[in-house]
Amino acid sequence: MTAADRALADVMPLIKAVLRRKSGLSLAPDDARPDNVDALDLYHDVVARVWERLRDAAGDVGDVRAYAATIAHNAWSDYLRERYPRRASLKNRLRYFLGKQPRYAAWETADGDWVGGLRAWQLEARAVRADALVDVRNGTRRLAPGSVPARDCEHYAAQDWDRLLGALFAVTAGPVPIDDLVAAVATLTGLKEDRVESLADDGDDDMASAAETLADEGPTPEAIAETKSSLAALWAAILALKHDYRCAYLLNVPGAGRTRGDLDVFPQYGVASVDDIGRALDLAARQYAIAWRELGLEEALPPAIEASPADAADFARLWPHLPLEDLTIAAVMELARQQVINRRMLALKALARTLAAHEPRGSARTG
Questions:
Q1: Which ranges constitute the DSSP H helices of the chain?
Q2: How many CB atoms lie under 10 A from the CB of residue 155?
Q3: Which of 45, 122, 288, 358 has a 20 to 30 A CA-CA distance from 328?
């Protein structure tokens, strides 16, 4: 047996486990349900793609398990986008809105599931309400009148999403799985699809169109003022953190996917400039040099770096590379990776305590 054969045999159970979890199907050869047959075809497709890559690379593709899991996730997402395009588009729009609005957030749990809710809930690490939207979906609980905008959800502006999601999160009182949120919104807005599936993580094919739709009607002056006030309170709380907590937080602000939207929002609203963020980090020249080495920008630390002062240009150079991986942050801060994670969690708890007093009453308004 070749190295490629051994590698494939090792990852085949992983591929099946990913697709079983995403589809909710058995993937058993004797399960004749049409959906299961389709899922089995997809499984064999993924196995073939992984095998071709292993064969061409003589088994050397780095982390084979991570590669196979990525191929399986992407294949399932492609399958859903092709078969359920409107629902996949809705999910992309929801995740885009949650990731771009300071009041809301979408984040990945420790189990690898995506949830959405108010940003304060993320900071508080509030428990996920897995069944919170069942009554909304089956019609036994109704939202306040006017909560569902009277237009096609594919043409919702930011204010429409704010009204609807504010009403839904007033019901849930905690974060909910993104898939459950998609199902509830689809039901409330009358979105029709051939079949209802539990959507897996999608790509960003519809993100551009989502951005254009949300930009059609900009936020009201009142909403901008409220957002700026909330961000100013958050920035003040960040500056009050211990320095190592602040660094662990700012170098990889928890948010949706590998985006820097949560950090960009401070300059966007004029609350803190890029230079202000650099000053808040207050990294030493040696730490920047370690970052360049870890990012592959320089191979070695310059001599006599200990005595060299850092300046604004250093952070300007680092800015496009944020957020950093935790292993990179650990090297920069000269800590273990778990210590970085622990400091970020403590930072989140401290921010939640500080911001609790700034949460406006009725923030989960139903419009």
A1: 3-23, 34-56, 64-83, 85-100, 119-124, 134-138, 158-172, 178-189, 207-215, 221-239, 243-250, 261-268, 274-281, 285-294, 312-318, 326-333, 337-356
A2: 10
A3: 122
How far apart are the C-alpha atoms of 188 and 148, rounded to whole Å? 7
Distance, in Å, from the CA atom of 33 to the CA atom of 25, rounded to the nearest integer, reads 9
How many angstroms separate the first and last alpha carbons of the chain?
64
Residues with Cβ within 8 Å of residue 264, at least 6 apart in sequence: none
Tokens of 266: 């401070």
Please give the mean pLDDT across all residues of the chain: 79
**What is the b/e burial string over 22-39, where b = at least 16 CB atoms within 10 angstroms of the residue's CB?**
bbebebeeeeeeeebeeb
pLDDT of 21 reads 75
In the predicted model, what is the mean pLDDT of residues 31-54?
86
State pLDDT tens for residues 51-73. 888 887 765 667 888 888 888 88
Task: Tell me which DSSP letter residue 219 carries.
Answer: P
Strands 104-108 and 176-177: unpaired
Higher pLDDT, 127 or 192: 127
Does residue 15 have a pLDDT over 50? yes
76-102: b (≥16 Cβ within 10 Å) or e: bbebbbeebeebbbbbbbbbbbbbbbb
DSSP state of 193: -
